[in-house]
Amino acid sequence: MTHNATESTPYVAQWGILGCGWISSEFAKDLCRSPAGRGASDISHAIVAVGSRSQAKADAFVAEFVPRGAAAQVDGLCKVEPRGHGSYAGVVNAPNVHIVYIGTTTSAHYDDARLVLEASKHCLVEKPATLNAAEWADLSTLAKKQGVFLMEGVWTRFNPCFLAIEKAILHDNVIGDIRCIYSDNSLDWHNKKPDSTRMLSAEQAGGSVLDLGPYPLVYTMMLMYRHPKNGLTPPAQVGSTMMLSRTGVDLASSVTLTFPQLEAIAYLTMNSLSSTPKQLHTRIVGTTGEILIKGWTSRPSKFWIRRLVDPAEGGVFLEDEEVDCAFDEFGLCFEADAVARCVRDGLLECPRLPHEDTLMTMGVRKQGGYEFLPGLEKVK
Ligand SMILES: NC(=O)C1=CN([C@@H]2O[C@H](COP(=O)(O)OP(=O)(O)OC[C@H]3O[C@@H](n4cnc5c(N)ncnc54)[C@H](OP(=O)(O)O)[C@@H]3O)[C@@H](O)[C@H]2O)C=CC1
Ligand SMILES: O=C1OC[C@@H](O)[C@H](O)[C@H]1O
């Protein structure tokens, strides 16, 4: 065992947070929840530094979300008090910070991640990690050179309901051989939110495929690309259709990925014109049945198994079996727990989301031809 853990006390991850926007507040709130409540006794979390471009905003964030720190501070496992910083550099250079969560807007991710890695701190950067594959490859090389952990924050890969779906398909074989994934992730923000909103803004590198696309891709990457019979073979074909908005980002996109070794295909859709129904966002079809998934695409919470009466005939199903995996947490704590364990164990990449997977999905996201504003991409 390394760092501060012993047989009887959990390893405490000492986090710094960059950016005091919405998702950082959800991250902070989740880290305040007792890990014991989700059955985790080997790790806990402290939030020791919070950074904003404004000192007042950082101080207000600390006062509102982490006045006493996160779970480990409240439980007396970490004596460091949380502190607000009026710059991101203040956080990455704070000696008590071991891991930095980047919750800044997408166009800032690459520069912020470089700042973290150059300070030799471990790094969890929100999705989409970067604007393109070249930027991600550059960060990956830097993290390895510095000997620090780096991961894209795709929380769905660590969601308990997603884990149950993965087990049902890959281990328990409940739908037979996987054939098709239909997955949608859409939010009807067009003409309802200002064009300066993160997903609609070209300056912030918004757009459906970058902002919404990572989640339908989770189902594809984990259930097809990582399917044992696929042997990590990249999709043979990646097709994409895009409609651009008046701001220049993609208003609507579709992505199709083929996996000939599995005789399987994924049809993914994402747009800012409609909202995905919580009743059904993803349908996974196999040779002996289907799985229908409820909740948000990024935060599944319940699913139905629908078995064919006669797989040779098709068309007629037995009564649906409901699997309820509802949980109280927002859900970012599950990826934070995984990151804490990796750092504790000295890993530089997370086995459930290695650098290579992010590299591949960054490539997929580029297929449709949406061009960023000049200067946004730092590496091409
Ligand atoms: N995992 C998930 O479920 C989710 C992930 N996300 C991802 O998180 C990131 C942030 O999204 P969200 O929290 O909704 O966005 P917000 O706009 O609420 O927050 C983004 C923060 O980024 C910082 N920032 C740095 N540079 C800029 C800039 N040039 N313009 C605007 N803000 C800037 C600001 O922090 P400050 O002013 O304090 O410096 C701001 O508060 C995005 O990359 C998004 O894709 C978003 C929602 C859900
Ligand atoms: O990352 C996010 O942004 C887009 C939303 O679809 C999703 O729920 C959220 O997690």
From TrEMBL:
<dbReference type="InterPro" id="IPR000683">
    <property type="entry name" value="Gfo/Idh/MocA-like_OxRdtase_N"/>
</dbReference>
<dbReference type="InterPro" id="IPR050984">
    <property type="entry name" value="Gfo/Idh/MocA_domain"/>
</dbReference>
<dbReference type="GO" id="GO:0000166">
    <property type="term" value="F:nucleotide binding"/>
</dbReference>
<keyword id="KW-0560">Oxidoreductase</keyword>
<comment type="similarity">
    <text>Belongs to the Gfo/Idh/MocA family.</text>
</comment>
<protein>
    <recommendedName>
        <fullName>D-xylose 1-dehydrogenase (NADP(+), D-xylono-1,5-lactone-forming)</fullName>
        <ecNumber>1.1.1.179</ecNumber>
    </recommendedName>
</protein>
<dbReference type="InterPro" id="IPR055170">
    <property type="entry name" value="GFO_IDH_MocA-like_dom"/>
</dbReference>
<dbReference type="GO" id="GO:0047837">
    <property type="term" value="F:D-xylose 1-dehydrogenase (NADP+) activity"/>
</dbReference>
<feature type="domain" description="Gfo/Idh/MocA-like oxidoreductase N-terminal">
    <location>
        <begin position="15"/>
        <end position="153"/>
    </location>
</feature>
<dbReference type="Pfam" id="PF22725">
    <property type="entry name" value="GFO_IDH_MocA_C3"/>
</dbReference>
<feature type="domain" description="GFO/IDH/MocA-like oxidoreductase">
    <location>
        <begin position="167"/>
        <end position="291"/>
    </location>
</feature>
<dbReference type="Pfam" id="PF01408">
    <property type="entry name" value="GFO_IDH_MocA"/>
</dbReference>
<dbReference type="InterPro" id="IPR036291">
    <property type="entry name" value="NAD(P)-bd_dom_sf"/>
</dbReference>
